[in-house]
Design a protein that fits this description.
Layout lengths: L6 H10 L2 H8 L23 H13 L2 E5 L6 H15 L1 H4 L4 E6 L5 E7 L1 H21 L6 H27 L4 H31 L1 H12 L3 E4 L8 E4 L4 H4 L1 E3 L13 H4 E3 L1 H4 L2 E4 L2 H6 L3 H10 L1 E2 L14 E2 L3 E2 L3 E6 L1 H9 L4 H8 L1 E5 L3 E3 L2 H46 L13 E2 L1 H13 L5 E3 L3 H17 L3 E2 L1 H10 L3 H23 L5 E9 L6 E14 L4 E3 L6 H20 L7 E7 L12 H13 L7 E3 L2 E3 L2 E3 L4 H7 L9 E5 L14 E7 L2 E9 L3 E9 L2 H9 L3 H28 L1
Parallel strand pairs: 1-12, 1-13, 3-10, 5-8, 8-12, 15-17, 18-22, 20-21, 22-25, 25-28
Antiparallel strand pairs: 2-3, 2-4, 6-7, 9-11, 14-16, 18-19, 19-21, 23-24, 26-27, 27-28
Helix pairs in contact: 3-4, 6-9, 7-8, 17-19, 18-20, 19-20, 22-23, 23-25
Length: about 750
């Protein structure tokens, strides 16, 4: 009997059972996270990224640029902040700007000049100029209308005397009353004019507009301090939308453009990051590309200076500019994802990347690292750091309540949040993780990667840690235990994880229905994954597949629906594999139409990991042998060999739900290390079904609900597990079926010839 396995292969599978003890030995230096010490060096608090940390120290020493490339959540922003802190402590006193930036009028109202000067000196100089202008203002006589008021008062007095005399004359000569009326009206008008002059005089004296207008030309000549290093002390400026206004600066709109009230150019100018900060941090380089600022940035990085110009094509400020340049010797720290890096490689033949490499380094952030003792210890330390961060958050949020109302007040208020009665000894504080709980987090990091590595995408893990903390706090447990972490994993799902969970729930009923309605011939349970865009996490789900082979007709393979190019190529490869098998066993070949259907895969299928499942389904239909619907299978089929695929841990984990009624899975031999994290905090044992080795994992305590995982090297190993037939039996039945089909085709031709 042919056997694909050697004796050392069985030993290798047995070695997988040692993984939980290996992981425990990596965590043996503590019982809970309270015994873990956080390093004082802030750069060392960033875990897994050893190459990046080493590069940051080197670039910081050389005052170079830095480009961090990697997936979201790998620590790019944290490393950029650490870089700023290193520069602050090492060279901060020397690279921090020492001079103020002053602007004063240029050759006309649309031009200004830039000067750099000692802050104290320029402050004294401006104070002296302000005093001189104030003296000039005070030397101007106060506004007065006394002469006009006096002349109006004299006319008013004359008119009043004339009115009085005309009254006396009117007694003897009545027509004189006409003079009385006219002089009275004139006196009233003069009275109103006198009051009007007094009001104007008072308003002008209170507002002193006359003096201000007289000294406005002097005030417009006053220099403006655009940057004072004593006020802006930070070395690094974070720019979220790197456009011309934020990076260079510009000129504000002038609302007073008429009546000799326009604002002088130096008072409308403002500076951007280039002029004010030694270090510029661009969090997402993609936004810089969208803002079309790349060409300006390259020019400034090359020349280390630039001219301040108006930012609008029309309107106020369009023609404004500085006559001399501003200094711009900045260190650029930028972060981007791999899709942006591909654009940068094409843009200007990689000009930006060339500038970075000339004076700095491009760092590719690790997305996964080997599971070594050092990296496991770093993961534990990371958990401790998040616990301390959560403790500080509790202190900031509840510190005042605890101070004023004590623990009882905190408990009473927390009862309103949780909606239930809490124990009298309840304490709102961050709980430490037990060793086994830390192992659960390490397990999750392993599940989210492959090839025996730990995922470096840590941002989603933060949410899991905090959710597990909340579970322990509500339970008032002394420590965070594995059950709290597992509960957090169930609740803390990404958008894609929630969608995957809904699909798995749907597949439970679908699988039960298919099993009850068919003889399982041609039906096979494949395994697929959904990848989260935000966290890069994969979520597995069962993928029912139906295959059938029809004798005669054209020699084609059909896979309808939204099938990707790789999946189509995998289907063609399956056809070639079956034809090769027919030729190998000497079976006569006739035309076959092969049909493959991914059942209710509405979003389409891509990848080659279902090729071995397709092969089993087609062979099952060809030899009329049922396929066990209790086992799922994944793998890339090349000839007879099953090659490794991605996401195996998540694929297997997705069908371990007891309600799905699955009892096991077949995975590629080379994916055997992807099973290791599933052994953490569970009971398991080594098994063997004839020549195929495997592991049996008990999903519940007490040896209940076993789940078997078999490691297949060839498709014949999978035939043995899923259909219970050996290599020889499969080949014999294929030969028999092929001969029957050939005889059938000959009879059909004879019948048609007779007709």
């Amino acid at each position: 009997m042919y056997n694909d396995y050697r004796e050392e292969d069985y030993k290798w599978i047995k070695e997988l059972t040692l993984y939980p003890r290996t992981l425990e030995s990596c965590l043996s230096h503590f019982e809970d996270t309270s015994q873990i010490k956080i390093p004082d060096d802030r750069i060392e608090r960033v875990i897994f990224q050893n190459h990046a940390k080493k590069a940051i120290r080197k670039v910081a020493q050389n005052r170079g640029h830095l480009l961090l490339v990697g997936k979201p959540g790998t620590g790019k922003s944290m490393l950029a902040d650490m870089f700023s802190r290193v520069i602050e402590k090492s060279l901060g006193d020397y690279i921090r700007p020492k001079e103020s930036i002053i602007a004063y009028p240029g050759k006309d109202q649309n031009h200004m000049r830039i000067a750099y000067e000692d802050p104290k000196k320029i402050e004294d100089h401006i104070s002296m100029l302000n005093r001189a202008i104030e003296d000039a203002r005070n030397s101007i006589e106060d506004f007065s209308l006394s002469k006009q008021i006096e002349s109006v008062r004299k006319v008013k007095t004359v008119l009043l005397w004339l009115a009085g005399l005309s009254v006396v004359a009117g007694i003897f000569f009545p027509p004189a009353f006409v003079v009385t009326g006219l002089s009275g009206i004139g006196a009233i008008f003069m009275f109103m004019q006198e009051n009007n002059h007094k009001v104007q005089e008072k308003i002008h004296q209170e507002m002193q507009t006359g003096k201000s207008l007289n000294v406005k030309p002097l005030m417009d000549m006053m220099p403006e301090i655009l940057y004072d290093p004593r006020k802006d002390t930070s070395l690094m400026i974070r720019v979220s939308e790197p456009g011309s206004n934020n990076m260079k600066g510009g000129f504000r709109h002038d609302p007073y453009q008429s009546g000799n009230l326009h604002t002088p150019i130096q008072k409308r100018a403002y500076l951007g990051a280039h002029a004010k900060a030694p270090i510029i941090y661009i969090d997402e380089l993609k936004t810089l590309i969208k803002e079309r600022y790349m060409s300006s940035l390259l020019e400034i990085m090359q020349n280390k200076k630039y001219v301040l110009e108006g930012g609008r094509n029309t309107g106020s400020g369009a023609a404004d500019r500085s006559e001399n340049p501003l200094k711009a010797d900045n260190l650029i720290i930028a972060c981007c994802n791999h899709d942006t890096l591909a654009y940068l490689q094409e843009e200007g033949d990689g000009a930006f990347l060339s500038r970075i490499e000339d004076k700095g380094e491009i760092i590719n952030m690790e997305s996964a690292v080997p599971e070594t003792k050092e990296n496991v210890a770093q993961a534990a330390r990371y958990i401790k750091q998040e616990i301390d961060n959560l403790g500080r958050e509790f202190e900031n949020t509840w510190g005042m309540v605890l101070e004023k109302e004590g623990p009882a007040g905190v408990r009473r208020r927390c009862e309103k949040i949780f909606g239930k009665k809490l124990p009298l000894n309840y304490r709102l504080k961050a709980r430490e993780f037990s060793r086994n709980a830390v192992a659960e987090i390490v397990k999750e990091l392993r599940c989210r990667s492959s090839d025996g590595k730990l995922s470096c995408v840590l941002r989603p893990i933060n949410g899991i840690i905090k959710t597990a903390e909340l579970e322990a706090i509500v339970e008032n447990s002394e420590l965070v235990e594995p059950r709290h972490v597992r509960k957090a994993l169930e609740e803390h799902l990404s958008l894609e994880g929630a969608v995957s969970k809904e699909l798995v729930e749907h597949k439970k009923d679908l699988k039960k229905y298919i099993s009850s309605m068919t003889d399982s011939i041609g039906y096979v349970v494949g395994l697929a994954v959904i990848r989260s865009r935000s966290s890069s996490q994969m979520f597995g789900q069962p993928l029912p597949i139906h295959c059938q082979i029809n004798t005669g007709g054209s020699d084609i393979i059909t896979a309808p629906g939204k099938i990707g190019e790789i999946a189509k190529a995998a289907a063609e490869n399956v056809r070639a594999s079956i034809k090769k098998l027919l030729h190998k066993v000497g079976a006569p070949y006739v035309g076959y139409e092969m049909h493959i259907e991914y059942i209710q895969a509405h979003d389409g299928v891509e990848g080659d990991s279902a090729s071995v499942a397709m092969n089993i389904g087609l062979i099952s239909d060809y030899i009329r042998q049922p396929v066990s619907q209790k086992y799922g299978i994944t793998g890339s089929l090349t000839g007879e060999i099953i090659l490794p695929v991605g996401g195996v841990t998540e694929k297997v984990r997705s069908i371990m739900d007891i309600d799905l009624t699955m009892e096991g899975a077949c995975i590629p031999w080379q994916n055997k290390h992807d099973v290791e994290p599933l052994l953490v905090n569970t009971d398991f044992e080594y098994i063997r079904k004839e020549e195929v080795p495997g592991l049996r994992i008990y999903r519940n305590e007490g040896g209940k609900d076993p789940f078997e995982i078999f490691f297949c090297k060839t498709k014949y190993n999978a035939y043995k597990i899923l259909m219970g037939v050996s290599r020889e039996e499969v080949e014999d039945r294929i030969t028999e079926r092929s001969k029957r089909d050939l005889e059938f085709m000959r009879n059909m031709k004879s019948k048609f010839a007779e007709d």
